[in-house]
Amino acid sequence: ARGQGLLANGSFENGMTGWRGKGAVVRRVEAKAPHGRHVLQVNPAEMDEDGLSFQAELTPGKEYSLSFRINAPQFKNTWLLVYMDGLSPYDMVASFRGPKGRRGRGPVGWLRRSGTFIATAKRSRFHFARPTSWRGDKIGKFQLDDVRLTPTGRSMTYGRDYEYRAILPSEAAAGQAVRLLVTGLWVARGGRYGIPAKLAAKLTVAGDDAKAALPGSITFERGRPAVSAVEVTFNTPGVHRLTVTDAAGNRAISNPVRVTAKMPELRHFWGDLHIHTVYQHGGPKAGDENDNYRFARDVAGLDFAALSEHYASCITPEVWLKRMAVATRKFYRPGRFATLHGIESGTYQGHHNYYLRSDDPLDLHDRRDKPRSTQDVMDFYHSRARRVLVVPHHLALLQPVDWLLRDRDYHRLVEVYSNHGSSEEPGPWWRAPSYRGSGNNYKDSGGLPGHTWRDGLAMGRRVGAIGSGDSHSARPG
Predict the structure, then answer these.
(1) Residues 402, 392: Cα–Cα separation, whole Å
(2) Rounded average pLDDT over 70-95
(3) Where is the CBM-cenC domain (predicted)?
(4) What pLDDT is stored for residue 362 in this prediction?
(5) Residue 455 in 3-state DSSP?
(6) Is 88 helix (H, G, I), strand (E, B) or coil?
(7) pLDDT at residue 102 above 50?
(8) 391, 415 contact by CB (below 8 A)
(9) How is domain 271-467 classified at the CATH fold level?
(10) Mean pLDDT across 408-437
(11) What is the DSSP letter of 239?
């Protein structure tokens, strides 16, 4: 059989040669397949953690295209994820999904899916993982054929494929060391966007404080995530920035840091209070509780974070207590990284996150039934004299927030911006392309009038505004 680029058996004309994985068998088809006469039939129920995989020889730093044909009678709102050199959320190469607007319909026939990626090792193993879905849809048995892995002729390019980031605290005291976090992140849209690249580079550090104590260099080793944290000390009061530059002249400028003689009493801290995990609709690409806290602290450089998984609809009290609460305690480091216990619950009065003072199971509002209203939840907390912070989000979308609901003790903040867009006022305030056309963002809906943050202010509701991720991709912050 003719090979598909770098794959000698991409159309399975030679059986499973070069492939491995449970739940997959080669079938001969009477009707012509996309390539040849054989296809691979896969039963997701029998797939193991390694999925269906093949190995390929690559050139680090070069771009490749991975494409395949899939025939899934119930593709629906389902993703097929491809990983390289591992199975963590940060090893994902691409995320492929079924055609939009076909949820609940019948067979869609053979579909072609393709994506590009940068190689980071001379030999890599690619894994087609067990399909996942947003709403629990089942893909059922499906067929693969005509898998191709081909070089595009492009090399990894700074600014198009990856960029450096340099993060400093917003304030520092002269003569006291602070942390400089430097990362090299994939920035090309796709399954890898925002995760650390595995690249080799040596960066110099420079700044506008002539008396600052700076490291001589920062080194990223190929094959390892490009993440490094070092200490720097500013000695001159004022507003300063640092610049990191590699041998090719590619550089990144840090955020400004305000240096004073003594550390100010009031300081700026940065965080993400709305993080979802694998236990919600995001599937494996959303990562578990540890993946998300680790990324928030070590890659995004946040000062605080909170897991706010959908309670009752997606996780049980047992999962929350044994996984979410345990991780929240484990990652809490006073003065270094603050974690909050959180949950999310939506009713006809809006989607709200609840941030708890403790992980006492009696503080959870589930009571074995999904709450009928947000007011019921807050009444429950009042009855127990619990201190809880209640934060509504995507105010004019899905179940919009009810501004007649008012509780001065609990309701002090609103999440004005997130992955869903801006809910400050109606309009197409949207930047992230991944949700466009989904009906699940403000660009599509325009936002429902009477429910935005400005509408609430006009009604006399005095609540602060924050921005959070509402992320489902293991990339908080």
Answers:
(1) 10
(2) 78
(3) 6-73
(4) 59
(5) helix
(6) coil
(7) no
(8) yes
(9) TIM Barrel (3.20.20)
(10) 68
(11) E
Q: Is the pLDDT of residue 4 over 60?
A: yes
Residue 78 corresponds to which tokens in the numbers above?
């389902």
CA-based Rg of the chain, rounded to a whole angstrom? 25
- Which residues are registered as beta bridge partners of 205? 244
Cβ atoms of 39 and 52 closer than 8 Å: no
The pair of structure tokens assigned to 238 is 């004022």
Write down the domain spans for the chain: 19-155, 162-260, 271-467
Residues 6+ away with beta carbon under 8 Å from 320: 309, 311, 343, 364
Fold of 19-155: Jelly Rolls (2.60.120)
The mean-pLDDT minimum among 49-58, 108-117, 276-285, 366-375 falls in 366-375
In which band, very low, low, confident or very high, does the pLDDT at 434 lie, cut at 50, 70 and 90? very low
Q: Which amino acid is at 175?
A: G
Q: Which CATH class is domain 162-260?
A: mainly beta
Token representation of residue 382 = 């009042």
Q: What are phi and psi of 160, to 5 degrees?
A: -95, -45
Pull the structure tokens for residue 83: 């990983």
Q: What region, left, alpha or beta, does residue 403 occupy, with left being phi > 0 and alpha being psi -120 to 50 degrees?
A: alpha
pLDDT, position 108? 65
**Residue 374, both tokens:** 């947000």
Q: Mean pLDDT, the chain, as a whole number? A: 84
Comparing 119-133, 136-150, 432-446, the range with the smallest average pLDDT is 432-446
Read off the pLDDT band of 79 (50, 70, 90). Answer: confident
**DSSP readout, 33-77?**
PSSSSEEEEE-GGG--TT-EEEEEE--TTEEEEEEEEEE-TT-TT
Amino acid letter at 379? Answer: D
- Distance, in Å, from the CA atom of 235 to the CA atom of 450, rounded to the nearest integer, reads 51
